[in-house]
Amino acid sequence: MIILKSQEEIEKIRRACRIVAESLEALKGYIKPGMTTKELDRFVEENILARGGRAAFKGYRNFPATLCVSINDEVVHGIPSEKVVKEGDIVGLDLGAIYDGFYGDAAVTVAVGEIRNETSRLLKVTEGSLYAGIAQGKVGGRLSDISHAVQSYVEAEGFSVVTDFVGHGIGRSLHEEPQVPNFGPPGRGPRLCEGMVLAIEPMVNAGKPHVRVLADRWTAVTVDGSLSAHFEHTIAITKEGPIILSRL
Length: 248
Ligand code: MG
Known about the structure:
Layout: H1 7-30, H2 37-50, E1 54-55, E2 67-71, E3 74-76, E4 90-99, E5 102-111, H3 117-135, H4 143-156, E6 160-161, E7 167-169, E8 176-180, E9 197-200, E10 203-205, E11 211-213, E12 220-222, E13 228-230, E14 233-238, E15 241-244
Antiparallel strand pairs: 1-4, 2-4, 3-12, 4-5, 6-10, 7-8, 7-9, 9-14, 10-13, 11-12, 14-15
The chain binds magnesium ion (MG).
């Protein structure tokens, strides 16, 4: 069942999202070559707490940390560790917060120092596909219009979308119905209506779409070793069009 949110509930989700967005922005300014991913996790957790929120991922299905941090060929769900970020890496930063009983969720992929042009194109295309998906978040449309927009955008640029993981509804739970795939034909699935709140999150590989999960049971990596990027926003569907709740 898709739980529709009132204006008041959307405002609460917006506050959780704001904590996420501000903490990610702070983290973007903090991350430097030589830091461990655990240091990034500690920094962002302090940021969430300082803003009156709680970490949403910590303890979720026993995930041990606040931040999912996924480097280069890691797609999503990387666990913070003693691993060091290096000049030329791309680092996916996925963060969730709880505020007043409501969840917010967002992700960005950042470049550490200088990266190759083709890598920077991967980041641009992945973020662009997120906005292409968001643009389809219109009352009266269908859920898979979002999915189709993401996939077409990515594939027109010669990259591939990951199909093993999908976006989701969000509210009083981190993951609610509906699932929001980043692929598929348009015009399918539930009709989009006012009060739906969705986390849209394309994961895009430079090479083939296939991924596998490492022995830590969390970290997903590309099977072919190609680079992968991930961007995510939490949005509300309104009569006036989609509103991005997790943008500063
Ligand atoms: Mg999410």
